[in-house]
Amino acid sequence: MKILIPIASVFVALLGLAAARSPAVQQAANPFQPGAEHALLQKLAGTWDAVLVTRGPDGKEIRTPGRQTTAALAPFHVTERYEGELMGQKFSGSGLNGYCTVRKQYFTYWIDTMTSSPLTAYGSYDAAKGELALVGECIGTSGKLEPCRVVTKFVDDDHRAFELYAKGPDGKEALRLHIDYTRAR
Known about the structure:
- By secondary structure, the chain is of the alpha+beta class.
- The chain has helices at 4-21, 23-27, 36-42, and strands spanning 46-55, 61-73, 77-86, 89-100, 105-112, 115-126, 131-139, 145-156, 159-167, 173-183.
- The protein folds into two domains: 1-32; 36-183, Lipocalin, CATH 2.40.128.
C-alpha cells in the first residue's frame, strides 16, 4: 500500500502537467502558473501596522492599533495573521487570499477569535479604482450568516485600507469596520 501512494501522487502530478500543456488550458489562464492577479496579492507580503476603526454602542469612533503579518504561500496565495484589539478584547485572526483562475475571481477565507463562523467572499479587482471588492457571507449581528462585502483599497505599495460592510440595525448595508494599513519599517 505504501508504494501506491507515491505512484498515485506521481500520476496526479503528471496529469496536471499534461493539462497545463493542453491547448485548452493554454488559451485560458493556466491554473498551474501564477498570473498578474497573483502578483497583486504577492505585493501584500510583509508586516503591516494597522489602525482598526469601529463604532461603539454610543456611536463614537473607537480606534485600536494592530499588526498584520502577510506571507506568500507559493506564488498563488497569501496567508495573513492579525493581532490587536476589537471592542475592548484581545483579537486575532487568520486569512487565506488568492485568485482562482478557473472561477476568474479573487477569494478570501477569514477566521478569528470573535466567532466560530468564517467569512468567505469572492470578487474582482478594479485596476482603475485600485480596489479589490469581494462579496460573500459572514456572521451578522443576528448571530446568523448574512451577506457581507469587503473592499481593499490599494493606495500605494506601502498603504492600503480595508472595509467590511454588512447589514446595519436598519437592515441596510453599513460600514462595520475600517482598517488602515501601513507597511512596517
